[in-house]
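[Automated response] Your request has been received and processed.

Submitted sequence:
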Amino acid sequence: MATDSQQAAPASEPQRLALTAAVMEIRQACDELGHEAHRSPFFFITGAGISYPPVPLAASVIEHCKSVAQRYKRIGTPSGSQTLDAYSHWFGCAYPGARQRQQYLRSLIEGKPLSLASLRLAHLLSARRLSNLVVTTNFDDFVARALRLFGTEPAVCDHPRTVGRIDRERDDVQIVHVHGSYLFYDCANLRGEVTGRARADEESSFTMVGLLDSLLWTRSPLVIGYSGWEGDVVMSALRRRLRGGNPLAQSVYWFCYRRAAIDDLPGWLRSSPDVRFVVPDEVPAAEATAQPAARGGAGQSATAARRATADPTAQPAPEATLPAFTVFDQLNRVFDVGTPALFENPIESFANSLQGALPGADGAAGDPYAFKALIERLHDAAREFASKRALRGIDADLDRLRTLMRESNYAQALPLLATIVPARYAKLAPAERTDVVAAAQLVARSLLDKPGYAQLAAETAQALVFDTRLQRSLGPSLPPGTSWVMASHSGQHAIETRTHGKTYGAFSYHFIDALRDAGADVDRDGRISLLEAAVACARRLLDMSAGHLPALAGDVGSTVLFEAERRPAAPRPAGRLHAVLVGMERFPWGNQLAGPSNDLARWSKLLGSLERSVHGAAQVHVLLNEQATLAQLGKQMLSVCKQAQPEDTVLFYYTGMGMRRDPPPGESGGQEIAVVLHDYDEKTGAGVLTHVQLLAAMSSTAAGRKIVILDF
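Generated structure:
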């Protein structure tokens, strides 16, 4: 008999498939073979990827456990090179006892918000269109919690002795935790525990091994958010089934977060003709370079990327990824799961749920709590709710937007958002603005992560100026009166452009123009908000294929610098503008930019002019190159913030190079945003101004409005 290595050696090229094609194949199989979820040819296998980011991934857990182990003088090296070996070693070193390990897992899971992927999966399961069965390596209960939100109570198996709860012939939604649950301290974390779940039990057929072996003979898995730890019960069962001699009735669909993830999987899996790997679309070469079309300039390139390969602050070109929530979004759309009943009539949904949970009133105990009367009152209220639900105008549009977002229908949500932002944004109540921004962030994340986003119609640019990753960096809520405007989304790089014989930051050039462009005042209130100006700027950047769009956060919809039109008879406005403008053209690693000095000149002229300004006076302070040290900038910001009064505005602007740094492994939170100053030290990383420092400086001022604008 050939050994594993002998069989893996001649591995054929893995079968790769795009997401859309894979989901259509899955839909066809269900249409032809399994109209009912419990007779589906598929079941789900899910891993940590569907619970991220609320629950950290294995790499972060390993780093945390390393630090804990080292604190208690426990050192050593893992026994193997696989991720499971490192995870098991450091988890065991950090938390030697089973109850300690359980307590740590509880700290990671309890009280955390549900991940978007878990919500999308629960929505799909509750619709019972594709499958009713989930096998997961996760310890959290996110999917079960999400199902209960949608009014579905799942059957849960979280220990080998409870596999009898799983009945494939029932149409109940069923969840199998192959490694156990965080609620109990006998969950499998260490290699011995994990591989132990993969071994057969001679005394009982009710084992995880037996359950998975049986499942894999009748159904094929859709593997999502799972990286494949060789030796665990899932991989062991898959290996037995794929090498068992009989082909699977349906292909295994393995959804990969990155295209390169296939290389980390074992040869027996990569070479199997029964496995189809669903990978992200490749980023076209033209987009990877992010170079816009030439726009003049004799004897030299008309554009220059604001990041260069020699730049130590530069990040690699963004890699195409396929997050778990994107997979479920596509499945939900193709399987047409619709809107959960809860949102059609929440009162009726609750009444039905309550009625289904109660024993019959004709039983021995009767109905001592008069639940029946309560349920009747709820049904009456539900009928009244339905009769009054007819909405008009903006209320109808907001209701439609929420429905489209629940259905993962971003393509239709985009033009609807474009009718709300920015034209009607200022008229929304705070809670409505929150809903709109959240929808815009999700739509932008879904569309901007895909190749070809620059081909989107310019009319929809307003829906793409909110960045969920920027919001995560800045925190759930900025201080009142604070507006944050960046030239690019996370993963994009701002560029320079040449016009009228001079070089400028492309964002700065168009944003300055938009701030006093009467055409940007789409809500016709006579003022140009930062949001309106950014949308006008975004359209121009799309037109020039700049490869980046502005990203906004905070009170951008109500913060104004200029009137749309001149009003000769108007009294001079109260309040002063205090602006600190910083530019960096020369950097210690040898790179140079041509635009920052020109950007500063245009900003100085714009802000210093009081024509159509909402401020009665302006003080503009400029720091360029050698002047822009951390100490000098700190001194200037302190002075400005101290002078400002409640009716004033403090504005900080930076043009040059910056960076977005991911948090250290094991730590939660968003990226750190930092701009490079003259005294930047490549070795220590000193000489940068971070968003945390900037927000702290701004918090010390009495100014009613605080504006941050970063062009890098």
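Summary generated for your ticket: Residues 47 and 505 are 43 Å apart (CA to CA). The chain has a mean pLDDT of 85.
If you did not submit this request, please reply to this message.
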